[in-house]
Amino acid sequence: MNNAAGDSPEWSELDPKISALVREIIARIADKWTLLIIEALHEYPDARFNQLQRMVEGISQKVLTQSLRQLESDGLIQRTAYAETPPRVEYKLTPLGESLGEAFCGVWIWAERHWEEIEASLAAFAAKKMLKEKS
Amino acid sequence: MNNAAGDSPEWSELDPKISALVREIIARIADKWTLLIIEALHEYPDARFNQLQRMVEGISQKVLTQSLRQLESDGLIQRTAYAETPPRVEYKLTPLGESLGEAFCGVWIWAERHWEEIEASLAAFAAKKMLKEKS
DNA sequence: TGCGTTACGCACCTGTTGGTAAGTATGAAC
DNA sequence: GTTCATACTTACCAACAGGTGCGTAACGCA
């Protein structure tokens, strides 16, 4: 009665088991690199490994591999390897991954819209801290 | 012409300086604890320190303090200390923080709606891996 | 006088994350 | 037969995140 389909869109109290699950999922996808990879794949579908590494600036090969495996096992991206030489592997978002990308789109827009406020706040906070330490 | 106000809602190419800034902001807010704190404060405004620690299950005192400081310096929460005994400190989301909470709401809903698919995908992936290792 | 409460700060230590660098498999080209 | 490219995997190591425990300030109460 409580765990199966209830597709209620309201954000009400849901039972703690599911809540914990959701938290775990959030914790798994909410890291810097994962988000950037999803965004890169959202903009450039069917990207290859080295392309991704170039797009997600600063990521190391190892972390990219790890993140891609994680995303794959979560069902967010699809990995397609072609038995050619040199080998070719293409990654693309699954429909599930696409839907997550769209959900995150709001956050990207938020960041784009509010970065100036954040910068200002950071500066103000640093100034206040300096003042406090002086005294 | 390019960096100031252009409030274009389209998701077009924006100049790399801002893009990097946005990435940095995303990297700063996109971690497990920060998100959970924002959600807790979204649901229970004016929460106190120990209340938050109880709500965000599993967080340590140190990390909660650190995260709150970070959120405060980013201008996402407001800290109000009352000079009483025992001391009382209340935290609430600023309008900026509220807007971020709303932007993230989509992700929460997404997670709530799709956790079953993710679980299924994880299980399938593990099974496939087992199969591979057996051979 | 000593205990309790709240909201921390600080020091220490460990576990995980992440970077670097090297090795591997494949087949085609030279 | 050596080289080259791709897409990894593995080993090693450093850095940092995070947990634990102790200290603190302020006052109220017994």
UniProtKB/TrEMBL annotation, chains A, B:
PROSITE patterns in UniProt: HTH_HXLR (PS51118)
SUPFAM superfamilies registered for this protein in UniProt: Winged helix' DNA-binding domain
InterPro entries per UniProt: HTH_HxlR, WH-like_DNA-bd_sf, WH_DNA-bd_sf
Signal peptide (residue range): none
Domain HTH hxlR-type: 15-119
Key word Mitochondrion present: no
Keywords: DNA-binding, Transcription, Transcription regulation
GO molecular function annotation: DNA binding
Protein name: Putative transcriptional regulator
Provenance organism: Blastopirellula marina DSM 3645
